[in-house]
Amino acid sequence: MDDITKIDLYELLGILPSATVQEVKKAYRKKALKCHPDKNPDNARAGELFHQLSRALEILIDESARAAYDKVINAKKAAALRNKELDSKRKKLKEDLEAKERQAQTEEIREKSAEEKFKAEIERLRKEGSKQLEEEIEFVRSQIQREKYCDSEQLDLDLFRLKVKWKVTEGDQSHNTYNHESLTKIFSKYGEISALVVSNKKKGSALLEFNSSTAAINAQRLEQGFLSNPLSVSWLRGRPPSVGVPFNATRGPNVTTTQPGMNIFPSVPTNTSTSQSKVFPCFHPGSDIFKKNRQEKQETDFEAAVLSRMRQAEEEKRRVVERGGS
To answer: How many angstroms separate the CA atoms of 118 and 262, rounded?
Structure first.
């Protein structure tokens, strides 16, 4: 068994000896979350420090073990203080020195007795186990997993969300005008749409979210909208996802490239011009795009929040239906 008496457990946790059990647990959680081996894979000492923190928690939340530990530590502190006093009084008379040495020997006997009792408490904890320690370790582990999940969840949402834009002519009442109904019909062929928001602040703009990244990637790659008023489809975050998924138009062989003369959507002409983007026929790259992105950032953030709330509402409805069915 490692000599835990050589470590000041209160100093290790950064608390006072008078700290309550709740204060001990709070200090443990704060330090354990920082030094957990899962968060410090490159630090070889992280595991050792986490083990010491766990041992400190196990002892200090157990009333009997903590009392035995306090006796050992107090005895050591008293002995250290006596030694310091002895060092400063070495020139004193021999009789005084001998008297203090005898007193130190007496205290040493008491200290050994306290250490033996403390070791017995440690052995008891080892045999009985500490349910509170297990609960705290599980709390730290679940907290770390929750943080990792939240980070990955936020990253994955970028693979589902698109920004759609089109030109708006004042007073246009033609059948080529885009609205919620027409956009739903256009994009639903790629997969199930979880949310669609047509912007009221800026005409000719909408945000949509698919239930699958495959549907979003295919829609961004291939959809051009009506011939008379093409759509510009881009990623909400301004960048394509890092993974590529081939489009499957008929749930048959994947179509990864378009051969000359081939048109997946007959109503949309194939654009072979080299001065325009193959994905966005009406998009002309230039420095103005950065200015537009800055101007649209506020609207995009607001509508993205609306998408998120709609998505959460749909998920809650699904859960209610599942609970009702069970």
So the answer is: 83
